[in-house]
Structure to design on (159 residues):
């Protein structure tokens, strides 16, 4: 028997060099390119959607101004007339002219109701009282709510 330990004659273990994080593997480059491409596509989509909905933001600002005018002067007929004109302008932007331009009265009211997501119905007085010049004060809030909802939620239809 040999009193010496044979393992004592071995050289110490060599540890491998640490794996560098640079340069990354080809899969990481592909993932980076895919992420950048998705980010650019999402940005373009959001910018286009923002630009397409500019008319909605302007119409909502105009509707708020019309309501502010009503609250200061109390003329419900003028509020209804201006709101109706605003709705017609928005509809002409979002729908084919042949479908919107010639409609008035009940036909116009039915058009608005068909395009609406049924959150707040347009008052019947919009078709009747608007052209006679008498619009009840009790319907102003209903008309404002319905118009605001319609401007926000209508679906755009192109030729």
């Amino acid at each position: 028997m040999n009193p010496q330990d044979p393992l004592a004659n071995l050289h110490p273990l060599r540890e491998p060099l640490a794996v560098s994080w640079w340069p990354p593997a080809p899969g990481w480059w592909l993932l980076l390119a895919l992420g950048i491409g998705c980010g650019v596509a999402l940005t373009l989509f959001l910018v286009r959607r923002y630009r397409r909905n500019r008319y909605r933001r302007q119409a909502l600002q105009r509707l708020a101004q019309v309501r502010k005018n009503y609250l200061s002067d109390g003329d419900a007929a003028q509020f209804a007339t201006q709101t109706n004109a605003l709705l017609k302008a928005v509809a002409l932007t979002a729908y084919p002219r042949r479908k919107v331009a010639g409609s008035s009265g009940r036909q116009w009211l039915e058009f608005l109701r068909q395009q609406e997501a049924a959150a707040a119905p347009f008052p019947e007085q919009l078709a009747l009282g608007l052209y006679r010049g008498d619009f009840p004060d009790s319907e102003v809030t209903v008309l404002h709510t319905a118009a605001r909802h319609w401007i926000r939620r209508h679906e755009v239809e192109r030729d």
Remarks:
- The chain has a mean pLDDT of 88.
